[in-house]
Design a protein that fits this description.
eight-stranded mixed β-sheet; single chain; Alkaline Phosphatase, subunit A; alpha/beta
């Protein structure tokens, strides 16, 4: 591997498979969803940059639940009931199982489970645009441009994929279940920048609970899938095709990269990990029969199977049978022109409450609370002061909050950390950190430590300059 070590001074924190056999053309369906790059191509690119062997990676993993648009900290985890009316909003805080920790009344499941997670209330940065905020948070670096979503530095998941590229466990090592039509790497600033396209996530768009759901990049070609009318036949087709590949001797004639791609695409572990029907109805109900809940369940199955990094997108709540709310908004971007914030949250937060707490509880129930670290966040918080404007969809005056990177809250648990804590605080109006100010880099330093990655190592950028994995930041001491 072509990295070198360099210690930098701490800086202040601010965010083709060649397969001519017609019946086996599904081998070409291994594309990672990035402009035709096949899985075999990705494996070849990774091997080209691999060097000497290194010590085995620890058996750890990370689930990153991403809330695009920026959730309001003062309607979730950092409520200010004593603030002026135009700051505090209409929802009330409720006590939790942890004395002194309160959450929004729309998060009752969070309240019961509070001993199993931590809330960090003092993360902040300087990028108020969605693009700049995404890049700042996703990369742990100060982006060259405060707008747009194309990374000039690798997203953290790509760094992890690079550092663990020798890991081969039968499932993709970096996966992102996301919204349909939102699976481009630049939608949420998930680009790998100078590491190259081999290190972007394996995208899984759609609702995993839908009857017609398929893992697109593992599915047979359309002409085969079109004549399969249920899941049982689909899985049987995988089994039969895999046996035909083995018996034909075609495996021996492929180069090793194509062989690795086929092994992954037809492996039992991959098929099983993505197959939510193997879970009990009771557990799937606990997560919620909704895209958000079923994506969270998929993430748990993936890390349990050996995947290192899963980015779960929870963006649009109005799907899976939830009717569109005229005064609602697609993502968490609760400007008054976009939505009636309180009406939207009344529909959004119960779904969120169920999915997140089920994931936390399931990690503990399955003994994964030391192996897996979980973080739930968006790119920034929302303005402490409520504004009112005429809604684009409704044509009436309605309340909302704008972008606010100066203060935000996130949920974190797992990784063997102490839980039941509130870390940091904001001032009485939720405007900025009052104590324990932290940056996204401190969070990522904590994650890298959990994954056993030395974040002082460097990779060359496009000009050959050594770029540290993380230019500044320290692990959050309270999370040890």
């Amino acid at each position: 591997m072509f990295f070198v070590r360099r210690r930098l001074p701490q800086k202040p924190g601010r965010p083709a498979c060649p397969g001519p056999v017609a019946r086996r053309e599904f081998l070409r369906a291994g594309a990672l969803g990035i402009g035709g790059l096949t899985l075999a191509d990705a494996l070849r690119l990774r091997a080209a940059s691999a060097g000497d062997a290194q010590k085995p990676d620890p058996d750890t993993a990370f689930i990153f639940v991403w809330l695009p648009g920026g959730p309001p900290h003062m309607e979730t985890y950092d409520m200010k009931p004593d603030a002026p009316d135009d700051y505090r909003g209409i929802f009330r805080p409720i006590p939790t199982a942890v004395p002194g920790l309160e959450v929004c009344e729309l998060l009752p499941k969070h309240a019961k489970l509070a001993g199993k997670y931590n809330i960090v209330r003092s993360i902040c940065h300087d990028f108020a645009d969605h693009g700049g905020g995404h890049k700042r948070f996703m990369t742990g670096r100060i982006p060259a441009s405060p707008v747009d979503f194309v990374n000039d530095a690798p997203a953290v998941g790509s760094i992890v994929a690079k550092m663990r590229e020798r890991r081969s466990v039968g499932v993709p090592n970096y996966v992102s279940p996301t919204e349909p039509g939102r699976d481009g790497v630049d939608v949420f600033s998930l680009g790998a920048a100078y590491l190259g396209p081999a290190y972007v996530p394996f995208m899984v768009p759609g609702d995993p609970g839908a009857k017609d759901f398929q893992v697109r990049n593992l599915a047979p070609v359309t002409e085969i899938a079109g004549r399969l009318d249920d899941r049982t036949k689909l899985l049987a087709e995988f089994d039969r095709t895999r046996r035909e590949i083995d018996s034909s001797g075609m495996m021996d004639s492929m180069d090793k990269f194509n062989r690795q791609a086929v092994e992954l695409l037809t492996s039992d572990k991959a098929r099983i990990a993505f197959d939510l029907a193997r879970e009990s109805d009771a557990l799937r109900d606990r997560y919620g029969r909704h895209a958000w809940g079923q994506r969270a369940l998929m993430a748990r199955r993936l890390v349990e199977a050996g995947c290192s990094f899963v980015t779960v997108v929870m963006e649009n709540p109005y799907q899976s049978g939830v009717p569109w709310l005229k005064q609602g908004v697609y993502n968490w971007d609760s400007h008054a022109v976009n939505c009636h914030m309180f009406d939207d949250l009344a529909a959004r937060l119960p779904i969120y409450d169920q999915a997140i707490t089920a994931l936390v509880e399931d990690l503990y129930d399955r003994g994964l609370d030391k192996k897996v670290m979980l973080v739930v966040t968006g790119e920034f918080g929302r303005t402490p002061r409520i504004t009112s404007q005429i809604g684009t969809q409704t044509g009436v005056m309605q309340p909302g909050r704008d972008h606010w990177p100066q203060a935000m809250s996130l949920l974190i648990c797992g990784g063997g950390m102490r839980t039941g804590q509130v870390i940091g605080s904001t001032n009485s109006k939720g405007e900025h950190p009052k104590d324990r100010p932290l940056s996204p880099n401190d969070l990522w330093a904590t994650v890298y430590r959990h994954l056993g990655i030395d974040y002082e190592q460097t990779f060359p950028d496009h000009q050959g300059r050594p770029m540290p994995i993380l230019p500044f930041g320290e692990p959050i001491a309270e999370l040890t």
